[in-house]
């Protein structure tokens, strides 16, 4: 199906056929959800041994009774787990509660109101601070900025990571740029892994940016590979130390898609300056995180080999779901001009671009047919995709059969929305 070469008669014929197929799907009264990248129940079951693993022994290696208050930056065993996950020295890691998003919000809030390197560094001291957002990107990152009233400036996401020429131009030309969001491995939603060159250019931003500029490096999918020989991500920590820009990047990760999603452990990896700034904020709002849960996780995943072996079990459950999505897209759209998509080697999403102007209609049609998709525009700041193209597909929660069913609906809706748009030309 090549819409750009079709005659009006062909378009009307396709529209009639697709409308019949769509009506038949609606009649099935489906109720499927591929909106959010959550682990399935089978994946959560992989970590049920956390329950009871302490067997009454709540004492950390340094003698800390984890049942009590204190320890605002986490117990040593949990820092070791963070080091295994993030490949950053344990001394540079702070361990929090279950959510890395919470730590990202708290870090940006600290940077905005209080400053990560003292009151003079607070972003609120300038008029209209801005943060760079590669797009398509992660909607929850955008929500953090929107809540704090921070203006978002977009740059395109490419096959190698953010368009670094655009990023460097913005940083050099606008002194109000104070931050940048990054999902460097299996980027949400495109699945891109930043190349070594991109990582090094990001590490060097601190040489040209304002001293209060911070990259928020959300390595949410650091070990979430689907293939046996995945692309590797260069160490931004090592490269920042190489270029003398250690304060310019703050890294985040968590076990939320490794163990129990709602009861995991989150981590910040940063320079001493940034950690001290964050701890000053945390010291005013908490007496310490859940150290019992930190200890449970440290004993459940005692080393890097245990962590990677555990992630291989996740991959075995996720891969058939991703295969179902990619097979459906390939069967329906190879050789057509109806859309483009990524083939990720890890993470939790497949990113699909419709023809311009068709994403919202595709999502609407799918909803009426009983398949919930992430709202069109969610992968852009303020929910506004300027071309109305990008749709994020999250296949992890439904069964494989349900993913197959959801994709049957999806491809039909993409085709129908595209043909109907072409008929209006």
TrEMBL record:
Coiled coil: none annotated. Keywords: Aminotransferase, Transferase. This is Aminotransferase class I/II-fold pyridoxal phosphate-dependent enzyme. It comes from the Bacteria. GO terms for molecular function: transaminase activity. InterPro entries: AspAT_Ic, PyrdxlP-dep_Trfase, PyrdxlP-dep_Trfase_major, PyrdxlP-dep_Trfase_small. The keyword Transferase applies.
């Amino acid at each position: 199906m090549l819409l750009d070469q079709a005659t009006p008669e062909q378009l009307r014929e396709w529209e009639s056929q697709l409308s019949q197929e769509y009506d038949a799907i609606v009649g099935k009264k489906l109720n499927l959800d591929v909106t959010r990248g959550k682990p399935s129940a089978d994946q959560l079951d992989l970590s049920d041994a956390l329950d009871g693993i302490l067997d009454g022994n709540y004492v950390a290696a340094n003698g800390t009774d984890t049942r009590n208050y204190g320890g605002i930056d986490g117990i040593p065993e949990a820092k070791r787990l963070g080091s295994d996950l993030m490949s950053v020295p344990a001394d540079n890691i702070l361990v929090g509660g279950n959510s890395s998003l919470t730590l990202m919000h708290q870090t940006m809030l600290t940077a905005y109101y209080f400053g990560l390197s003292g009151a003079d560094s607070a972003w609120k001291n300038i008029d209209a601070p801005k943060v760079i957002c590669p797009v398509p990107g992660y909607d929850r990152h955008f929500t953090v900025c929107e809540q704090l009233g921070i203006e978002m400036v977009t740059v395109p996401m490419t096959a190698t990571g953010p368009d670094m020429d655009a990023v460097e131009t913005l940083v050099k030309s606008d002194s109000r740029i104070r931050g940048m969001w990054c999902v460097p491995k299996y980027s949400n939603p495109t699945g891109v892994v930043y190349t070594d060159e991109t990582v090094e250019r990001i590490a060097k931003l601190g040489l040209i940016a304002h001293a209060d500029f911070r990259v928020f490096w959300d390595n949410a999918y650091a070990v979430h590979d689907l293939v046996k020989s995945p692309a590797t991500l260069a160490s931004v920590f090592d490269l920042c130390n190489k270029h003398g820009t250690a304060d310019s990047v703050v890294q985040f990760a968590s076990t939320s898609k490794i163990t129990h999603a709602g009861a995991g452990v989150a981590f910040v990896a940063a320079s001493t300056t940034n950690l001290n700034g964050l701890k000053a904020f945390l010291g005013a709002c908490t007496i310490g995180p859940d150290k019992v849960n930190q200890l449970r996780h440290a004993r459940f995943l005692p080393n890097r080999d245990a962590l990677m072996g555990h992630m291989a079990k996740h991959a075995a459950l996720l891969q058939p779901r991703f295969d179902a999505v990619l097979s459906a897209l390939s069967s329906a759209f190879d050789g057509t001009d109806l859309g483009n998509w990524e083939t990720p080697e890890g993470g939790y999403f497949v990113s699909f671009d419709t023809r311009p102007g068709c994403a919202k209609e595709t999502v609407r049609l799918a909803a009426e047919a009983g398949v919930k998709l992430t709202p069109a525009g969610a992968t852009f700041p303020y929910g506004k995709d300027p071309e109305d193209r990008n749709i994020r597909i999250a296949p992890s929660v439904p069964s494989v059969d349900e993913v197959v069913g959801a994709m049957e609906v999806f491809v039909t809706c993409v085709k129908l929305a595209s043909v109907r748009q072409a008929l209006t030309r």
